[in-house]
Amino acid sequence: MLEIISEHGCFGGVQAFYRHDSDEIGLPMRFSVYHPPRERQQLVPVLFFLAGLTCTEETFMIKAGAQRFAAQHGMMLVAPDTSPRDTGIAGVDAEWDFGNGAGFYLDATQPPWDKRFRMESYIVRELVPLILNEFNADADRIGIFGHSMGGHGALVLALRHPDLFRSVSAFAPIAAPTQCPWGQKALSRYLGDDRDLWSSHDASELMKRLHAPFPQGILVDQGLSDKFLQEQLLPQEFETACAHASQPLTLRRHEGYDHGYYFIASFMEDHIAFHRRNFGD
Question: Which residues contact 254 (CB under 8 A, 6 or more apart)?
Fold first, then answer.
């Protein structure tokens, strides 16, 4: 059963927060939805936003300033939590970049994580169908975007499920997790030692196997004052992979912008408009 936690009027629409019992996770999960005014009369496109490390289902909706543009373009926004909560797993909250708030949008295969940390299946097999069944969302116009760990998740889920997601973009994504400390920690603990399995959750490695999976283009924004740029994010790896795959990519590098939501809010309108163009009428 879908439980409404709270609802708030916002730019003529409604910002809502929900909780439900997840079959994939086996625990209650929370997510947020911005319902644009247009949804009252017709099916609307829906954009899923995947947030970064330490974030929750609230972070994007509070900080990104996206609702104004979603209302203008008639687009629903959905933000899931970044991991299961209250799992009872020992040490789940011991590190800020692993466990709670750091699900990396994959299905873990290693104990003790494999029972609850099933974020890919949760989003693709449960949350997307729930949104389509409960709300006035258009199944033919679904997009995905995200930030940092969530940028990684958006790129990877779009490449792994191109029949589901019609449009994809990212802010400062972890673009080559098999090559950076954040990714190596998460992939080794969630997936074990099988590096072929790691590669199947690395956007740069996945792109190398494909040919122009999103011919309408992919948009990525990256701040050049981002302290994580050189060691953790590696956008140049994704750029090279896209060139190899003949994948149109707009990778914009911005002087003076860091990793936070001031950066995201600065370019949010561009991302909403990018997805709206890809959806067409």
Answer: 221, 222, 223, 224, 263, 266, 267
